[in-house]
Amino acid sequence: MNIVTALLKTSIGKKIIMALTGAVLIGFIIGHLVGNLQIFSDPEKINAYAHFLQGLGPALWLIRLFLLLCVGLHIWMAVLLWCENKKARSQSYTASHTIQASYASRTMKYSGFIVLAFILYHLAHFTVKATNPEYNEMMWTLADGTVVPDVHLMMVAGFSSLTVSLFYLISVGLLSFHLSHGFQSMFQSVGLRTETWGRALKVISIVLSLAYFAGNAVIPLSVLTGKVSRPDSSIEAVAESVSSHLNTPSG
Amino acid sequence: MKVKIKVWRQKNQESKGGFKVYDSPELNSNMSFLEMLDVINEDLTDQGEEPIAFDHDCREGICGTCSLVIDGKPHGPHQGVATCQTYMRSFEDGDIITVEPFRADPFPIIKDLVVNRKPFDKIIQAGGFVTVRTGSAPDANAIPISKEVADTAMDAAACIGCGACVAACKNASAMLFVGAKVSQLNGLPQGQAEKDNRVLNMVAAMDEAGFGNCTNQYECSAVCPKLITHDFISQLNRDFVAATVRKSFKSKPSTAKL
Amino acid sequence: MKLDAKIPSGPLKEKWEKYIADSKLVNPTNKRKYDIIVVGSGLAGGSAAATLAELGYRVKCICFHDSPRRAHSIAAQGGVNAAKNYQNDGDSVYRLFYDTVKGGDFRSREANVYRLAQVSSNIIDQCAAQGVPFAREYGGLLANRSFGGAQVSRTFYARGQTGQQLLLGAYSALSRQIGLGTVEMLPYTEMLDLVVVDGHAKGIITRNLVTGEIDRHAADAVVLATGGYGNVFNLSTYARNSNATAIWRAHKRGACFANPCYTQIHPTCIPVSGEYQSKLTLMSESLRNDGRIWVPKKVGDKRAPGDIPEDERDYYLERKYPSFGNLAPRDISSRAAKQVCDEGRGVGETGLGVYLDFEDAISRLGESVIRERYGNLFDIYKEITNENAYEVPMRIYPAVHYTMGGLWVDYGLMSNLPGLFVLGEANFSDHGANRLGASALMQGLADGYFVLPNTINNYLAGQLGNRPSTDHASFDEVEDEVKETINHFLNNKGKRSVSSFHKELGNLMWTYCGMGRTKEGLTKALELIPQLREEFWKNVNIPGEEGEWNQSLEKAGRVADFMELGELLCRDALTREESCGGHFREEHQTGDGEALRHDDEFASVFAWEYQGKGKTPLLNKESLEYENIQMATRNYK
Questions:
Q1: What are the residue boundaries of the structural domains of chain C, listed by start?
Q2: What confidence tens digit (pLDDT) does each residue in A43-57 have?
Q3: Which of A214, B21, C176, C265 is 20 to 30 A from B42 (CA-CA)?
Q4: DSSP characters over C452-489
């Protein structure tokens, strides 16, 4: 049996795929968070960072495809495993009783699906900007004179909406929850959890999830409370420009 | 004391089962749970009804024959004991106790509370052994084994093959059972020669039997009557990874190519 | 009948070697033409089935459990003896042999026991190679502990689960062969009768416990490894389903039953707590090192143990056996406990129990020392009785836990029925009138791994092509009888459950043929058992149907056999007018209550031959010759 069939065809293999893709995605979301935290610096910084990423060209697409593949595999395996697990216990117990399985571990499929919905919205919101076409108008001129999308402004504008912020907070909360089981589970699935550091791993897992949640929560909260803001004029300018576009028949 | 039991009755594998409620006669709280069922069965027999079928044998917690899910927990309310070591004093007078068979599709119900755990044997047949012909063994002290390794192997070997791990797992996974046997033999010097084949073959047999997958929730170790740790599942995963990698990259002996 | 043990001639040490050298062999290509049925999958059956299959025979192994891993060998705790002398403490094959013969009160065969001691070393090698996690010392070598009846440390162990680990070792070897297709394993299958064709055991009739199907199996030889018959007493340390059906039905087809009255009763078990009790649990004998055994002096004293002042307590072992005290040997302690309970001084709700008190030890050594020594035993005790033995004394009482008797076999483990081999506890061969601790595991594995595979060929070599077809008239006949019995049970529709009969039989056996046996009691039992048996056949009630899982029906067949075996047991006990090992006839004791053997008359094996329903069985004797050991009175002073 070669590695590919071992991974795709055996129960342990599928779990290993879950773990490895999970690890990549955890790496990604942490990197993503660190990038986003630049919002607390000057708009120049995060906008330049975004521009740098955009400028990667084909490399960016390779990264995106890879991440997409990981998400896809993660979900595909999750569905496969779920189906197999269902089949292994077609009749459930009348008196059901949980002894030590954590709430997070028992709700992975739900938290996972809600997080997926959130990712789709998030991509539509900030990457494709389908939900908010006005973001296309938000531009920033870098110190070297290049005109780039004003990511900083997009974020401020986006999180100014209480609804968006709330949805964002809930989703990130669920993602952290997903992570609190997923992170430690990953080590077990590839056989790297041992008794010696199992307890520490559990603590690390929880601390990491909490930190991840805190890091993400602080962004919308800062926007809502006005800790991070932009002069009203810049938002209004965009709004005007958008409405003028809409009023132009040819637009 | 008296209790009511709400117990699963099913004539055979094909038929549809359902719950029936029975009143116990006056019980002594020092009775074991199985003795309580004995007493109810005596009553049923005297009334001309068929007694409740349940698996049991040694009644001292070592043979692994007894099963039962009692109020949603395999082997009843206490940790580290089998059903046969569960006593009525763990229940209150007037309790309604739900008694169900182990539920997992690889363990079909034979009758009432009796399930067939044959897939466990199949898994062992696939690799849960050291190939050593009778009479061909070297002197037992020829291969020293550190006390630590021997003790860990014994921890894993304590498994009684009852299947509670499968019954408790939300996914009816057999990973704790397989992990314990693989860890016992792969951890000992005697088991090294067949280490990789053992883990790959046993996992294949486990998958073929239709058990679910481990989602690392550890309900298995929580109900294990011998308190076998889920570290052995991690060990199984590690051995599986190593075996798969080695198998893929190792040059094969010419005989294997034939 | 002339019973020929076929012991090879020559010096003791060379007998086994000579036997093997003189054996007929079966050509490797011919081995696969032989079918062997192994009934039972415990230490003896599992190891035999695996080894025979390795040799190339086609093996069919049957067990009534769901899996061959469940046999009651699994419950043995202490360990397995072997004459390795790893401790350099003076052990040797001869010493193990001597201890075993002496422990058996000079009622076993010298040659068999010597062979057992010889192969004991190989057992440890074999099991270690299988991955049995024996206890180790820090240097990585095997650890030993000492056990009753020996002055050397020769017991190998795996925590308190040695039986389990050895059984799982045999099970793994068996599983390997099942996986390879050389053993056909039939779980959920109970042997209901033996088929004898032209005087040879050539097949069995079984019932599938799941479907109720009755099947025929023909073979070139049949091996029974079905364990002991202690459940004839109903309450015992045996598993609930342990039974004597296979050996009893073989007995009724012509195999002699040897020394049925040799039953071992262990003194330290948790007492019966009520009528409902299904099982007795052993507490390690080691507790007697620090516990003091006592009962109240007054008959019917129901005060709590703590309220009984020191001068109103009777430390009866210390009083009766001042030199040995609480460490008096098993049989003496068991009988003394029975005696005080018979006087009405027993403790606990049922009055069948004595105190094992740690108060003195705790005040002398401190609770932590006691906890360290016996913590796990105190925990087990707490689990079962809900009493804290650090605060109140334990209650203990003797219980049946092994039967030394069984089907008669010759040196090659073949019964007087050619083709029928009997291994492990099911045969009578190695323990005489009393078995030493840690010797049961040794014998089971010796028989299965090393003895039978070297003796069965002697029989098989001349049998090529003699296997009958299952259409043979003998199969028809036996199957009809089996079906008739089953139909009788199911159509009887009586008033009493099987369990109630088993309980009554057990009480009877325990009362009249338990720890202390008398002519009067045994005569009474021989009157009562046939009456009970008659009522059983008339009045037993078996609900359910034939073609399905039916635990009442299974049990009915087993209890029916116990009803007959119990009678033979009492008859044997009545006939053996002496006391030896586990058999104590109160008429035959020395002035101070020791067992009194009559070697001139009874240094022989009593092998009973079935004569037909309702007829008195015929007694055959095989005299025991001691050429290497001087018979002596066991001395406990």
A1: 265-398, 473-602
A2: 999 999 999 998 998
A3: C265
A4: HHHHHHHHHTT-TT-PPPTTSHHHHHHHHHHHHHHHHH
